[in-house]
Amino acid sequence: MTLLVADIGGTRARFALYDQGHAVILREFPTAEFDGASAATVVARALELLGIRDVAAICFAVAGPVIDGRVSMTNVNLNFDELEISNELGLPVAVINDLVALGHALNADPGRAVETVGGPSAIRSDETRAIVCAGTGLGMAILPSLANGHGVVPSEGGHARVTTIDAYERELVDAAEQELDVRAITWEHFLSGPGLVNLYRAVAALWGTKPELLGPNEISELGISIIDPVCHRTLETFCAFLGTACGSLALTVHAFGGVYVGGTVVAAVAPMLEDSSFRRRFVDIGIQAEVLQSVPTVLFAEDSLGLRGAAKYAMRVFSSV
Fold it and tell me: Which residues pair with 60 in a beta bridge?
């Protein structure tokens, strides 16, 4: 079976042609290049860019909540409706959440491309696990235990309110609410690319310093090198919040088989994650701390996981095509 699969995030759009379960062509483009285009136009341009004409089926993994096969992206003007695309192109089409695609890839090969960041060294793939992915946004998903079918359950937990543990973090939230003019600061407001900038500006406000016009990459580089103390403090705080978010998710969904952590922002701060308060904050959640000590936290860093997961999903649902 020949498949067109895509992993479309807020910043990057990756396309691949899969033939008999193997990627034969891969291309990557800024998602903004497709801003405002119809879904059918995106498919046509993808086929043109890949240099192919015919495929048996299509699966797009898209950042955002997918409901009844439809999704509207928040960072760019793109909408996908699998039924509409299928009717227009005359092909079987699946539209799934991007974290669902990641989950299918990790279910197929739980130990692939992972690095332990605390706790037991091995993911327990027969138990429930969770994924937290910080990029342009903050994505989450749940991988139910083997006894419950080993599927993937999407989550919009990145849009839950931030949980603070002390006065410093509460002041950061207050500063961010004023800066962004919002009534509630969610995890994504801090744990994402744009979120790292929000967090940096909140830290600067508490320190009484004027923030520079820095992007997430610059904040990461200056913070890791300790050239800029505000950036360094921002990364320390990011790692702490990330630990709390991951620990809370693990408890909420009973993800005692492990938590996968990744995304472009996590990759940027990875050099200081091991020595940060990430793992301590992951575990230190009240009376269940002892339970969380036995839960592995691992980094995943392979760019093609989303494409592979979308292909795995498509091969399963379109097996009769």
Answer: 6, 95
In a shared domain, residues 131 and 32: no
Q: How far apart are CA 235 and CA 200, in angstroms?
A: 8
81-132 residue pLDDT tens: 999 999 999 999 999 999 999 999 999 887 666 788 888 878 898 999 999 9
107 assigned to some structural domain: no
In this prediction the pTM is 0.94
**Containing domain of residue 75, as a range?**
2-96+304-317
10 Å CB burial of residue 293 (0-12, 13-18, 19+) is middle
Per-residue DSSP letter, 211: P
Condensed to tens digits (0 to 9), the pLDDT of residues 11-64 reads 999 999 999 888 888 899 999 999 999 998 999 889 888 888 889 999 999 999
| List of residues 6+ apart from 24 with CB closer than 8 A | 17, 18
Taking alpha carbons only, the member of 44, 45, 41, 34 closest to residue 78 is 34
Residue with tokens 């950036």: 231
The token duo for 125 is: 């793939």
| Residue linked to tokens 């994402």 | 192
Provide the CATH number for the domain around residue 234. Answer: 3.40.367.20
Identify whether the C-beta of residue 321 lies closer than 8 Å to the C-beta of residue 57. yes
Coil, strand, or helix at residue 118?
coil
77, 217: one domain: no
β-pair partners for 7 = 14, 61
SS3 content of the chain, % helix, strand, coil (to 5): 45, 20, 35
The pLDDT value recorded for residue 178 is: 96
**CA–CA separation, 18 vs 197, rounded Å?**
37
Select from 217, 224, 306, 221 the least CA-distant residue to 260. Answer: 306
Are 251 and 275 in a shared domain? yes
